[in-house]
Specification:
The structure holds two protein chains of two kinds.
Chain A: H1 17-22, H2 38-48, H3 51-66, H4 73-93, H5 101-122, H6 125-128, H7 130-134, H8 140-168, H9 180-204, H10 208-222, H11 236-243, H12 246-260, H13 265-289, H14 293-296
Helix pairs in contact in A: 3-8, 4-5, 4-8, 5-8, 5-9, 5-10, 5-12, 8-9, 9-12, 9-13, 12-13
Chain B: E1 6-18, H1 30-39, E2 45-58, E3 62-66, H2 73-80, E4 88-94, E5 97-100, H3 113-123, H4 128-142, H5 157-168, E6 175-178, H6 187-203, E7 206-210, H7 214-220, E8 223-228, E9 231-237, H8 238-246, H9 248-252
Parallel strand pairs in B: 3-7, 3-8, 5-6, 6-7
Antiparallel strand pairs in B: 1-2, 1-4, 8-9
Helix pairs in contact in B: 3-4, 3-5, 4-5
The chains are: A mainly alpha, B alpha/beta.
C-alpha cells in the first residue's frame, strides 16, 4: 500500500528535532525511515545517558515515602503483613504443612507485586508523562525505564521480607541457587519487554489499563502464589492453570532455585524462548507507534 | 560542534489523525481495533495541519512565526521540537534544539527545588557534574536560596516560574524555539527575566518565535514567516511580513485543495 498513513516517519524525514537533541554530535547525518529496531536504538541511547531515568526512578520512590513517618519501612511493612497473614491463614486452609510455605508465599508475592505493578503502570506510562512528552522530551524509552526502575527499587526493598522468610524457614543454600545468576536476568528481560509492549498498546487504547487491572487480579489467584502445585501433582485441570500461565514460568524460574533447591529447566527454557518473541513484538509495535504517541495520549 | 545550525524543510506535510475516544476504545470497538492492528486502519480520517511547507533557516536567523490562530504556528514549533514527526516531506534539523514552549513542564511538585533542578538538568542532557556547576547560578537568579530544599508545592506560582525559567535557560541552545508565553507573567518577572531571556536568545544560533505581538516580533526577530492554513504564505523581513499579515492579501489566501501537492496522500 502506497499510503503514507502507515509510514508517518517514513522515507525522507531525516532528523526530527527529537533525534537531533541527542546526537547533535553527528549533526547532519541522514537518518532513514524509522527502523524496525527503533526500540533497541532508543534503548541504547537511554542506557548511555541514564541520568534522567535513574534519577527520576529514585526521586519517584523517595517522594512516595518521605512523607511517611516509617519511611522506606512503610512499603516493606505492607508486604510483611500480607505474607504473615496470608501465610498463616492459607497454610491452614490449604492444609499445606510444608515448612517452606512462608518462603514460598513471600517469594511469590514479592515477585508478583513487581510484575503486576510494572505491567499495570506501563499501560499508562506515556499518559502520565503527557506534559513532558508534549513539550519535547520524547525519549520514550526513558519513561518506561524510569517506571521499571522505581519498581525495581521497590522490589529490592521487599527482598528484605523474602530474605527474612528464607532465614526463618529451613531453606538451604545449595548449588541450585547459582541458577539465579541466569534466571534473574531472564525474569527482568521478560518483564521489561512486556512493559515496552504494553506501554505502546496502552497509549493507543486507554482502556487497556482497566483490562490489565482485571486480568492481573485474576492471574494473582490462578498463578501458584498463595497455593502450591506440589501437593496436587500437575494433573489435567490444575496443570492447565500452571502450564498455560506465563506468569507461572516467570515466578518459577526464581522461586524454584531459591526456595525449592530445584532448577526448573523446562520453565527456564520456556522463558528463554519467549523473550525474543516478546521483544520482537514490542519492537515492532514500538517502531510503528512511536510517531503517533504524542497524538494518542 | 563545527557544523552550523540549520533547519531545512522541504514540502513538509503534517496530518493529524482524527480519532475519538470511541475509536481508541478497545472495548467499544474490539473488531476494528484488531483489524487495525493487523492490517492498518484504512478508514482513518486526517486533518491537514501543515500543508507543503518549505523553508530554510540558517545560522543567525531570527524568525518570527506570524499567523492567525489555527494557522499552524504551534504545530510547526512542535514539529521543530521533535514532538511531532512530518507525515511526508523532509525536515532536517542540524543542531541542538531547545524549546521554551512550556518552561514549567515536568516540574515535580513533591520534590524539592534542588531535586527539580537535577531532574530538569538531566532531561536537558546534562551530566551530574554539569548540573552541579550550574546550581549556584540558577538558585541565585531564581532567588530561592532559602527554600531550595523545600518541596516545590510549597512555592508560590511566581517562585515556581522563576525556578523553571532559570533552569530552562541555564543551558545555551543552538536552535531556540519560543512561544508566546514569554510576554505572560507578572511585571516583576518580566523585568527580571527579560535580560536573561535576551542574552539567552543572543546566545542561540537560530531563533524561532511564534507570537501575535507585533512589537515583540520586531524587537526579537529579523525575519518573518507568515502562516495560513498550514502553509508558509510569506517569507521576508519581519516588517514586510507584519505588513503582509495585516493586508487583505493575507485574508484572501485560500485553504489548499485536498489534492494539492504530491498526490500520494494516504487518505482514502
Amino acid at each position: 500500500m502506497e499510503t503514507l498513513v502507515d509510514t508517518p516517519a517514513s522515507g525522507e524525514s531525516q532528523r526530527s528535532g527529537a533525534a537531533s537533541k541527542k546526537d547533535a554530535g553527528d549533526a547532519g547525518s541522514v537518518r532513514n525511515r524509522l527502523s524496525r529496531l527503533a526500540l533497541f536504538q532508543d534503548l541504547i541511547t537511554s542506557l548511555k545517558a541514564p541520568g534522567f531515568w535513574l534519577y527520576g526512578a529514585w526521586i519517584d520512590t523517595s517522594i512516595r515515602y518521605r512523607s511517611q513517618a516509617l519511611g522506606a519501612f512503610w512499603m516493606v511493612s505492607g508486604t510483611l503483613a500480607f505474607v504473615l497473614m496470608l501465610g498463616t491463614l492459607y497454610s491452614r486452609v490449604l492444609k499445606n504443612n510444608s515448612e517452606l510455605y512462608y518462603a514460598h508465599i513471600a517469594t511469590g508475592f514479592v515477585l508478583w507485586a513487581f510484575i503486576q505493578q510494572s505491567l499495570q503502570l506501563s499501560t499508562r506510562v506515556y499518559t502520565t508523562n503527557d506534559s513532558l512528552i508534549q513539550n519535547g522530551y520524547v525519549k520514550y524509552v526513558d519513561y518506561v525505564l524510569r517506571m521499571v526502575g522505581a519498581q525495581l527499587i521497590n522490589l529490592g526493598n521487599n527482598l528484605v521480607v523474602v530474605v527474612g522468610a528464607i532465614v526463618l524457614t529451613p531453606v538451604h543454600v545449595t548449588g541450585a541457587d547459582l541458577a539465579l545468576l541466569l534466571t534473574v536476568p531472564l525474569f527482568l528481560l521478560a518483564v521489561l519487554g512486556m512493559c515496552f509492549f504494553l506501554s505502546v498498546v496502552g497509549a493507543r487504547y486507554p482502556d487497556i489499563s482497566e483490562l490489565m487491572r482485571t486480568v492481573l487480579r485474576l492471574f494473582f489467584f490462578i498463578t501458584p502464589i498463595i497455593w502450591t502445585h506440589s501437593g496436587h501433582g500437575k494433573g489435567a485441570v490444575i496443570g492447565a492453570f500452571i502450564y498455560a500461565n506465563p506468569f507461572y514460568y516467570l515466578i518459577e524460574i526464581i522461586r524454584g532455585p531459591l526456595v525449592y533447591n530445584h532448577v526448573p529447566w523446562f520453565a527456564i527454557g520456556v522463558v528463554s524462548a519467549a523473550i525474543p518473541v516478546i521483544w520482537l513484538v514490542a519492537a515492532l509495535a514500538y517502531s510503528r507507534a512511536r510517531p503517533y504517541i504524542p497524538l494518542w495520549i | 560542534m563545527s557544523t552550523q545550525s540549520a533547519i531545512r524543510a522541504e514540502n513538509v506535510h503534517f496530518k493529524m489523525p482524527l480519532t475519538t475516544r470511541v475509536d481508541q476504545s478497545l472495548r467499544a470497538n474490539p473488531i476494528a481495533a484488531l483489524s487495525g492492528l493487523v492490517g492498518g486502519q484504512k478508514t482513518r480520517k486526517f486533518r491537514p495541519l501543515i500543508s507543503g511547507m518549505s523553508f530554510e533557516l540558517r545560522k543567525g536567523d531570527r524568525v518570527g512565526l506570524i499567523g492567525q490562530n489555527g494557522a499552524g504556528k504551534t504545530t510547526l514549533l512542535r514539529l521543530l521540537a521533535g514532538v511531532l514527526t512530518p507525515s511526508t516531506g523532509q525536515l532536517e534539523i542540524t543542531g541542538k534544539t531547545q524549546n521554551l514552549l512550556n518552561v514549567s513542564m515536568g516540574i515535580q511538585n513533591d520534590a524539592t527545588g534542588l531535586e527539580n533542578i537535577y531532574l530538569r538538568g538531566y532531561s536537558a542532557g546534562l551530566s551530574g557534574q554539569e548540573i552541579k556547576r550550574r546550581i549556584p547560578e540558577i538558585v541565585d537568579f531564581a532567588a530561592l536560596e532559602s527554600v531550595i530544599h523545600d518541596p516545590v508545592r510549597t512555592y508560590s506560582s511566581g517562585m515556581r516560574l522563576r525556578l523553571a525559567f532559570a533552569v530552562a535557560t541555564s543551558v545555551k541552545p543552538e536552535i531556540l524555539l519560543l512561544d508566546e508565553w514569554i510576554s505572560a507573567g507578572d511585571r516583576f518577572f518580566v523585568q527580571r527575566s527579560k535580560q536573561r531571556l535576551l542574552s539567552h536568545i543572543d546566545a542561540s544560533e537560530i531563533l524561532v518565535f511564534a507570537s501575535h505581538n507585533a512589537q515583540m516580533l520586531q524587537e526579537l526577530c529579523s525575519r518573518g514567516l507568515v502562516l495560513k492554513h498550514g502553509m508558509a504564505v510569506f517569507d521576508g523581513t519581519v516588517e514586510a511580513a507584519l505588513e503582509f499579515y495585516e493586508s487583505d492579501e493575507y485574508q484572501a489566501v485560500e485553504r489548499p485543495a485536498r489534492a494539492r501537492g504530491n498526490g500520494a496522500k494516504g487518505t482514502k
